[in-house]
């Protein structure tokens, strides 16, 4: 690659990293996200936190043993040991596959969209969230998704 082309590519990446993300609803009620909304649309700027899909092999651990309350902080509330909770976003491909799997297996779960509100995001972080999807079942946490690991995770929680 020629040095000039490499410099241009690096500059393009640098400038796009600081781009703003906007959210707007079209006339049919469909929600859109992008860096340049239509001029006639009422928009709101979206704060994008650096959360990404968890792309490594699914990891299961005991969140209660790993995460401790800070000194002076009130103890963390324990989730219902029988309710599976999935922390997700609307755009995450791994989250979509997890939803489809849970629906096909008729597994009840509670979903928390970490981008829908600050309390949802705070709750995700409270359990050590760094990538999505993340599942909590009692004191157990699973980061990432694949069907085999989910079956083992659910079986161990029963």
Give me a quick take on this structure:
By secondary structure, the chain is of the alpha+beta class. It has helices at about 5-15, 65, 95-105, 120-125, 145-155, and strands at about 20-25, 30-35, 45, 50-55, 60, 85-90, 110-115, 130, 135, 140-145. The chain is built from five helices and ten strands.
Mean pLDDT: 77
Q: Which bin fits the share of residues in helices?
A: 25-40%
Give the overall form: elongated
Q: What proportion strand?
A: 15-25%
Strand order of the largest sheet: 5-10-9-6-7
Describe the secondary-structure layout.
Layout: H1 3-17, E1 21-25, E2 31-34, E3 43-46, E4 52-53, E5 59-62, H2 63-66, E6 85-88, H3 93-104, E7 110-113, H4 118-126, E8 131-132, E9 134-137, E10 140-143, H5 147-156
Structure description:
This protein has five helices and ten strands; from the N terminus they run H-E-E-E-E-E-H-E-H-E-H-E-E-E-H. The strands form three sheets. Strands 5-10-9-6-7 form a five-stranded mixed beta sheet, with helices on both faces. Strands 2-1-3 form a three-stranded antiparallel beta sheet, with no helix packed on it. The chain is 32% helix and 23% strand. Strand 6, helix 3 and strand 7 (110-113) form a beta-alpha-beta unit. The protein has two domains: 19-48, no CATH class; 52-156, 3-Layer(aba) Sandwich (Glutaredoxin), CATH 3.40.30.10. The chain is an alpha+beta fold.
Name the descriptors.
alpha+beta, Glutaredoxin, 2 domains, elongated
